[in-house]
Amino acid sequence: MTNHFPLARFLLWIPPLLWYRIIWGFSAQTASASGKVSDGLLHRILRVLSPAYARSEADIQGAAVEVLSFFERKAAHMFLYFLLVILLLAALAPFARNILHRSAAAGVFCAVLAALDEIHQTFIPGRSGAARDVAVDLAGAAIAYGIWFLLRWVGVIRRDRRRLPAIRTWMPAGIGLLSACILPHLTQSTFGHPVFESLCQRFLENWETLDAAGKTAVLEGISPVMREMLYAGTAGLLGLMAILTLAMRRWPLPRSIIAAVSAVTLAAVCLAVLHSCCLIPGLLAAATGVLLGSMVWAGCILIVKGRALLLHKEFRT
To answer: What's this model's pTM, rounded to 2 decimal places?
Structure first.
């Protein structure tokens, strides 16, 4: 008699169910409670990643939080479903041998759960459901899919000992370096203030009540904050792309982490000098990018190893 560990298969559903319970709990908060939590978290993040924000007056800090809170909430949506789809892929591994079938099933589960969450929000005071937020949730899942398929493809190449053309293996690093060349310059170009002005016009409630001098003061106050956040975001992206590049170069994970940390530390120092930004936020963001990439890489390895264990290990009684 063959035993395929039926209990272990169902235990794999506990992490995605618990994670969705956390998502449901966030959605159950009223609009005021949710705004207070998200704004408080953003305030703490900005104090760590932006020295200009920490030095600013309270009104400039409030304006920066109002402008950036929209992006924070959407990024949170994406992260929540980024992780949810990875957990669903792990839970479905024992039930679907075909990777495409498993990915399709996880995508359907993710879309249904995102839609249910938005419907749930329509019953919460001050909250509303929107198809746009479902699309944002699925965008986070799509990013997870992209990284998952990339690392799985790299795993197949490693197993078969095939070599990739150098231009492919260095593609993630090229994306990171291109971003490093473009993103920090957005706040230093002549188009910087018009971009900020459009953001302020959309997200600041009292923007239209300010006179010209007041609007100029707000723009000048939040510009350094935006520059430092773009610098930190660029450093984080470089950390993530460094790990993906080394994965495609067929490096082992522990060695890749050491090499990626060394490379992005040097890149963060160069960016800080070139753009007159504080080094510490860049290092923190770069380390976060490396950590996120390493966790996804390790998660993909565990999914593949776990699937092999649950599907192929047998014993007779």
So the answer is: 0.79
